[in-house]
Write a structure and sequence with these properties.
- The protein has 19 helices and 11 strands.
- It has 470 residues and is of the alpha/beta class.
- It folds into 3 domains: 170 residues, 3-Layer(aba) Sandwich (Rossmann fold), CATH 3.40.50.720; 247 residues, N-(1-d-carboxylethyl)-l-norvaline Dehydrogenase, domain 2 (Orthogonal Bundle); 37 residues, Single alpha-helices involved in coiled-coils or other helix-helix interfaces (Up-down Bundle).
- The strands form 3 sheets. A 7-stranded mixed sheet has the order 3-2-1-4-5-6-7, with helices on both faces.
- A hairpin with a 2-residue loop joins strand 10 and strand 11.
- Helix 12 packs antiparallel against helix 18.
- The termini are far apart.
- Bound molecules: nicotinamide 8-bromo-adenine dinucleotide phosphate.
- The site of nicotinamide 8-bromo-adenine dinucleotide phosphate has 23 residues, from helix 1, helix 4, strand 6 and helix 6.
Length: 470
């Protein structure tokens, strides 16, 4: 029977939940997993649902209505190519393959070409929201031909989260644009998480208990910092294990997978500064060096990590430092998206991208409404910091932001992402930077030449510097 509306390969956590989501919108879904017992168990667990469990890829493909819509939800990298290779002999021209995993956008571009040359249609779609988002409504970032998106639109719009009544999905752009935007989304997520952790570290040094922190974060989530990550952080502080706060029992070493690293590489390639995200990735790397840190803590000196500021005052100051740094993190991520979009000719719509991050995804946050508005008002906005709404916020926050970084630094508490954010802000707003000296150094040892402040731009000069060797 070839009558399923949609097929999904890869029944791990994301795949299973997406299938249940699609099915719940009235579609019949065929499913296949390499380890077939997983398929059997999944289908058996949901006897009342319109699911077709296939034991082989042949059976799976035959169960789909034409043109077939096959979503691959397996581990990124080689497994995606392996699944595509096995599908190719079984599909007909015009069938649609969607890769919904966290694939590197350059892999997506390669697959797009590979499959379109063979007459198939391909969509590379970033899906954010984790298990819960996949089940109830994720934010989806699809890239590929606009005509293929039109075919997929009814299913994607029905399963996506809704924000202000709008589905959190739209056609991002051609080729790898969707997976690219998902990658930067994840980079921003790294930044957001690290900033929250730095705020936590400061509060800890000021004597806040997890219960007090649960209150602080709950309050923040009722205000302008409202976001999924602030909300779950409040819940984390409430969680007990054998009557102790669970957070205190979790080892302080974090892992990092592909998307953070890929974001950094791409930023360097595009000469775009994403210092907050960079600091966040590096903070994870440093956190993973637990043994080295423990050894160094006994050798390298610093002040006692204690902060003596009235708790209520500190909450306000840290709020401002966190919010300001968060604005910088988004400003940098969106700047990178804009640069790459221009470079690739993707014609990206930043207002719409910000809008689909308002629901379903991990970085969903109230202030994404303001970011959406900023780009709707001025689609050519040079930098988010320069949108009047955000300029006012930054001008208002900058004093407390500086103070928090100073207090933390004097107490020896690392705040790499807060500092990187402020460093970006101060550098960006500096009409004069010390790169004049840098240019002199470059000309000294490498005759790289320099421009002069008293001559027109573009005119290059070289000085015969004194010989210092020998
Ligand atoms: P995983 O990334 O853990 O992948 C497990 C799935 O891949 C299983 O179904 C496994 O089949 C299948 N698979 C592997 Br591994 N190698 C295969 C191969 N050579 N051929 C066929 N199938 C193969 O699953 P996930 O956590 O659900 O994530 C799926 C995708 O979504 C990933 O790209 C992930 O980065 C992305 N993503 C995940 C999340 C999240 O919160 N987990 C959020 C957003 C995006 P098996 O059962 O036979 O081993």
């Amino acid at each position: 029977m070839s009558n399923s509306d949609f097929g999904l390969i890869g029944l791990a956590v994301m795949g299973q939940n997406l299938v249940l989501n699609v099915e719940s919108r009235g579609f019949q879904v065929s499913v296949y997993n390499r380890t077939t017992t997983v398929t059997d168990e999944f289908v058996a667990k949901h006897p009342d649902k319109k699911l077709v469990g296939a034991k082989s890829l042949e059976e799976f493909v035959q169960s789909l209505a034409s043109p077939r819509k096959v979503m691959i939800m397996v581990k990124a990298g080689g497994p995606v190519d392996a699944v595509i290779e096995s599908l190719i002999p079984l599909l007909d021209k015009g069938d649609i393959i969607i890769d919904g995993g966290n694939s590197l956008y350059t892999d997506t571009e390669r697959r797009d070409k590979w499959l379109s040359d063979l007459g198939f249609r391909f969509i590379g779609a970033g899906v954010s929201g984790g298990e819960e988002g996949a089940r109830k409504g994720p934010s989806i970032m699809p890239g590929g031909p606009a005509s293929t998106w039109e075919v997929m639109k009814p299913i994607f719009e029905s399963i996506a989260a809704k924000a202000e009544g709008e589905p959190c999905v739209f056609h991002i752009g051609p080729g790898g644009a969707g997976h690219y935007v998902k990658m930067i989304h994840n980079g921003i997520e790294y930044g957001d998480m690290q900033l929250i952790c730095e705020a936590y570290n400061i509060f800890k040094a000021a004597g806040f208990t997890p219960d007090e922190l649960a209150e602080v974060f709950t309050d923040w989530n009722d205000g302008d910092l409202e976001s999924y990550l602030i909300q779950i952080t409040a819940e984390i502080f409430k969680q007990k294990d054998k009557k102790k706060p669970l957070v205190d029992l979790i080892l302080d070493t974090a892992g990092q997978k592909g998307t953070g690293k890929w974001t950094l590489i791409n930023a360097v390639e595009n000469a775009v500064v994403i210092s907050t995200i960079n600091a966040a990735v590096e903070a994870r790397i440093l956190s993973s060096m637990k043994d080295k840190r423990v050894a160094a803590s006994k050798i390298l000196q610093g002040p006692k990590p204690e902060i003596d500021v009235k708790k209520k005052k500190l909450v306000k100051k840290v709020h401002d430092a966190l919010f300001a740094s968060k604005i910088i993190s988004y400003a940098q991520g969106l700047d990178l998206i804009a640069s790459m979009g221009a470079e690739k000719g993707w014609d990206l719509n930043l207002a719409k991208i910000a809008a689909i991050w308002r629901g379903g995804c991990i970085i969903r946050a109230r202030f994404l409404n303001d970011i959406t508005e900023a780009y709707r008002t001025n689609p050519k906005l040079e930098n988010l910091m320069l949108a009047p709404f955000f300029t006012d916020l930054l001008n208002g926050f900058q004093e407390n932001w500086r103070e928090v970084i100073s207090i933390a630094t004097l107490a020896g508490i690392p705040v790499p992402a807060f500092s990187a954010s402020l460093g970006y802000y101060d550098s960006y707003r500096s009409a004069v930077l010390p790169a004049n000296l840098l240019q002199a150094q470059r000309d000294f040892f490498g005759a790289h030449t320099y421009e002069r402040t008293d001559k027109p731009r573009g005119e290059m000069f070289h000085t015969d510097w004194p010989d210092v060797i020998g």
